[in-house]
Structure formats: structure tokens, C-alpha cells
Amino acid sequence: MTGAAWPAAVLPRPALAKTGKRDATGPLLSGLTGLAALLIALMVLVIMGNIVFFGWRAVTWEFLAASPREGMTEGGIFPAIFGTVALVVLMVVALIPFGVGAAIYLNEYARPDAWFTRAVRFSVANLAGVPSIVFGLFGLGFFIQFVGRGMDRALGLDVVWGQPSLMWAALTLALLNLPVVIVTAEEALRSVPREMREASMALGATRWQTIRSVLLPQAMPGILTGAILSVSRGAGEVAPIMFTGAAYFLPYLPTSPTDQFMELGYHIFVMSTQSPDVEATKPLLYGTVLALLLLTFLLNLTAILLRARMRARLAGRT
Amino acid sequence: MPVPSTTPEPEERTGSPAAAVPERPIQLSAGDFSLHYGTQPALKSVSLGIPAYSVTAIIGPSGCGKSTLLRSFNRMNDLIPGVRTTGRLRFQNLDVLSPSTDVVELRRRVGMVFQRPNPFPKTIFENVAFGLRMLGLKNRGELEARVEESLRRAALWDEVRDRLERSALQLSGGQQQRLCIARCLAVEPEVILMDEPASALDPAATARIEELILDLKSRYTLVVVTHNMQQAARISDRTAFMLNGKLIEFDETARVFTSPTEKLTEDYITGRFG
User: Fold this and answer.
1) Distance from CA of B258 to the nearest CA of A (A)
2) Residue of B102, B167, B175, B194 to mutate, testing the A interface (most A Cβ within 10 Å of its Cβ)
3) How distant, in Å, are the alpha carbons of A177, A215, A225, A311, A317 from that of A306?
4) B218 phi and psi, to 5 degrees?
5) For testing the chain A interface, which of B68, B120, B192, B193 should be mutated: the one with the most A CBs within 10 Å?
6) In chain B, what residues touch A316 (CB-CB under 8 Å)?
7) What is the ipTM of this complex?
């Protein structure tokens, strides 16, 4: 088969010139993209380094366990830590069933081309693009003034529900995070192999039994991913909660969903903008930021470990 | 049990002596059954009757509609959007295609084993118990007894008795397929539809599945789709040959492979196409 052999021995290789050019642009491009990647790593390093460097001395046991004193220039942040955890837990409790329910409907029951399905998908996509401050104002207008006041009037109460509280703040945050959970849960349900559905149906399982016993267990790690993303975001958002429940300062801890609460992100905002003496609060401010980062990290780590365990079990490695 | 109105037409066409295979009641039958995927015809006017307690093989080249026909008997094609059917399908005296048919009950009585072993990512025990739990059985003792019985019938018990609580995914491919058969047997089906049950397995595992199929026919009616003609010849009592959505020939396996009536069948089994 001499005819098919590479004719390089006879003809000059025209590709050589081009190859030389590519060799020149290659390192340049890899250098530029590498620089972009390096910059990101550096920025994270600077931010984290700065926070840890100025914050670690402030994070003492007393700081984590005590209330703020002396106009927030002394004392600790325990009420804000407590409030943040309560807020995030309530948010997840409201968010996951609602979001997963919507995902199940969209993926399992809805006809993909029906106008209602399209309207829902369109709404979810748009909800994701709404600025968080708008959620805050919506929470105030809808949850507190409309739903809360309405409940008070209907029940003949004074002001119980119709005021900013932990519950309304958690619901507002849940709404903000709904698109993330719906999209990740839908993705997780979609990625369960068709064979699993068929196996279940062929054994005489109903559609709902198939969802509950086969699809949801297998989609759980993906659903947890949505929960992790929403916890990270929920713990740090200030705008949605500043009108709906977060308090500047409270001498007590919230004991009911109708109480107001202190929250780390909002506390940071308050200390850096509203304090009578910004210089005096600076060490505590750094400490609070570090505590917020650590708390978010801890909440995420818990969920990630849980997810790893579920994945191992699903893969049969237990 | 009333014999369905659609007596196996091919019997008359091929004129085979009915005495060669003992008369058995017809379990599954199709009468002038056609199926379209959207506008694409997949099955064209198929008529046949599958006798009880025997193995019926469906052979034919890829895309001839053999899997589609198989999946029609337990209405698995319902899951695919855009499927239209005409004609009749019967399971005993039940009208399979009727909208009032309880599909969940139908699928319990007409079980299915798929081409690729598809155990759930659960324990071996939970895989076999799955169908029973879906039926609402909660009693642990009864579950255990039925799981053991099903695993024994699927010739898997001795290999897994010590590791029922391990993940089913740790089993080999052949074991997984026998587990899927056990899972199917657990809900006491009357018919078992098998869609190329050994095509993803190595020769040794294939041999075990074939042995198992021969074992099972004393209790169940089996319909096995296969693209492997030797396999059809080894395991089946009757063979249906399909081509381009049509049933070309349906007769006793020995006759189909030695003296087929149709020229197309002969061309296929002698390897002239397909």
C-alpha cells in the first residue's frame, strides 16, 4: 500500500509553518488563562488571610458564647450565631419539601410541552434573576403585611404574626433559594437511569411508589447538593432578612418562630455601618466575619459528609 | 378459563400437526395487533397465541419489533410518549389494552426481565422484597420466607444466603440478572417476559440463565426475545420469527429451524441476512 503512505518524503510539509504559529500562541494562551486562574486563587487567599489574620484573636470562647455589650464594642456574638442557625434550619425545612415537590411535578407528572409547565419553568428561571433586596421587600409586603396581618385580623389577635419574625425571614430566604433547589433536584431526578423506573414499574409499583422508593433515594445526593448551595447562600444573605425579621440588637434569644432574631450577616452590616465607634468594633467585626465563614463551612461540611455516605451506599460500597 | 377468540392463526397457516405439542391453554395472545411510534409503524398486524407452561422465543434482526411486541404485553410501552396501538392483546381473559385494565395488577402478573441487569442500588434482600413491599407486605417473617423461596427458584440462594444485607451491586453480572429474575418471581407472576436476558452476559453466565429458563417453565409461561438463534433453538418450545414489524412465522422451534415454511425465515436462520 505505497499509494496511501505519507508523501512527506517527496513533498515538503505545508503544515510546518502553521505548526510554528500554533506553538507561539499556545504558551501565550495557556499563560493568560493560567494568570486568570492564579488571580482567583490569590484573591481568595488575600480575603481569607486578611479575615483570619485580623479575626482569629477575637474568636475566643467568650466571644462565641456571650452577648454584645457596650454598643457592640465588647462582648460576643452568641445571639447572632444562634439566630443564624435557627434561620438556616427553618429555611431548609420549608425549602426542601417545597422545592423537591415542584421538581417531582415538573419531572414526573407534567407534560413537557404543556403551557402550564412552560409557565412554571419560566417563573423558576426568572425567580433566580430577582435581586435579593427585592425578595426582602416582597417578604415585608406579602408575608408580613398581607399574610401576617391577615392572620392577626382573622384570629382577632393584636400583633402576633403581622410583624418581622424568624419565620417570615426564613420563608423569604426559602423563596430566594427555591430556583436552586428546584433545578438541582430536577437534575438529580433526571439522572436516575430509565432502567430503574422500568424495573420498578415492571414489578407492579405505582408511579408514586416508584418516585418514593426508587427515584427519591437515588436522587437524594443531588437534592443535598441543592440544600448545600442554599445553606451557603442563605447564611450570608442580609438583604432579604433586614426587613423581615433580623434585629439590630436583642437582649434575649428567639424562642418562637414569631420572635425577631439577630443574625451574623446582618450583625456584620450593623457593626460596620451603624456603630457609634467603628474603629472600636473593628476587631469584633473581623471575628464575626470569621465566625460566619466557619459556621457556613461547618454546615456545608455536615451536608457534604452526609452526601458522601449516601453516595457510597448507592454505589454499593458499604 | 375461556380460550381467547384469537386462536393462534399461524398454526393454521403453517399447518403443523397439533399433536406434536400437547394442547395447553393460551396465556397471551395478539390479534391483528399494530403499534406506531408517532407516525413510524413498529408492529404491523401481528397475531399469535402463546401457550402456557412453555418457552416461546421471539427472534429476528435488530429493529424488527420483537422487543416492542414483548413490552406491549405488560404495557411497558405506556411509558413512551406517542405510542398508538390498534388490534387486541389478551392475557388469559383480560383485555390488556383496555383503559380500564389495572396496569399495576397486570404488570405484577406478567413480570419482566430486562436486557441489562438492573438491580436497585439497595441490598440483595431489599431488591427481592421490593415488589412485595409495594404490595403492602410488612411482616418480616413472611418477607424473609418469600425472599428465600424466590432466590431458590432463581438458583441464586446458595451464592447469596450469607450476604443478603450487602448491596446488590457487588454481585457479578450473571448473579445480578438472576437476582432480577428472583425479584420478578417474588410477586408470583404467571408470565415472565424476558428481553434478551443473556445478551449482556458471558457464556458461562448465559448457560446458567438458559438452564434457569428451562427450570422455570414448569411453573411459568416464558416469552424470551433473543437475537441469538442458537439460544432460541436450545431453550424454546416455539419460535416466532419477526421481520420489519411483521410476524413471518410462528411454529414449534424444531420445525422453524429445520423446515421453515417461509422463504424469509429460511434465509434468516441460514444467515443470509440479519
Assistant:
1) 36
2) B167
3) 21, 18, 10, 9, 15
4) -70, -25
5) B120
6) 121, 166-170
7) 0.85
Q: Which three cell numbers stand for residue A35?
A: 494568570
Say how many C-beta atoms besides its own lie within 10 A of residue A267's C-beta: 29
Report pLDDT digits (tens) over B2-61. 444 444 444 444 444 444 455 788 999 999 999 999 999 999 999 999 999 999 999 999
Alpha-carbon gap: A184 to the closest alpha carbon of chain B (Å) = 21
Structural domains in chain B, sorted by start: 52-73+101-236+248-269 (3.40.50.300)
CATH 1.10.3720.10 corresponds to the domain A61-314: yes
A204:B107 CB<8 A: yes
What tens digit of pLDDT does each residue of B71-107 get?
Answer: 999 999 988 888 999 999 999 999 999 999 999 999 9
Report yes or no: B101 at the A interface, CB cutoff 8 Å: no
- Put simply, the answer to whether B134 touches A317 (Cβ < 8 Å) is no
A316 in reach of chain B (CB within 8 A): yes
Among B79, B135, B170, beta carbon nearest to A201: B79
pTM for the full predicted model? 0.81
pLDDT in tens, B189-206: 999 999 999 988 999 999
Domain boundaries, chain A: 61-314
Q: Does A193 touch chain B (CB under 8 A)?
A: yes
Distance, in Å, from the CA atom of B24 to the CA atom of B31, rounded to the nearest integer, reads 18
Strand partners, B48: B30
To which H or E segment does residue A167 belong? helix A166-190
With a CB cutoff of 8 Å and minimum separation 6, the contacts of B232 are B57, B59, B224, B226, B239, B253
What kind and span of H or E run contains A179?
helix A166-190
Nearest to A271 by CA among A285, A254, A251, A286: A285
For B235, counting Cβ atoms within 10 Å of its Cβ (0-12 exposed, 13-18 middle, 19+ buried), the class is buried
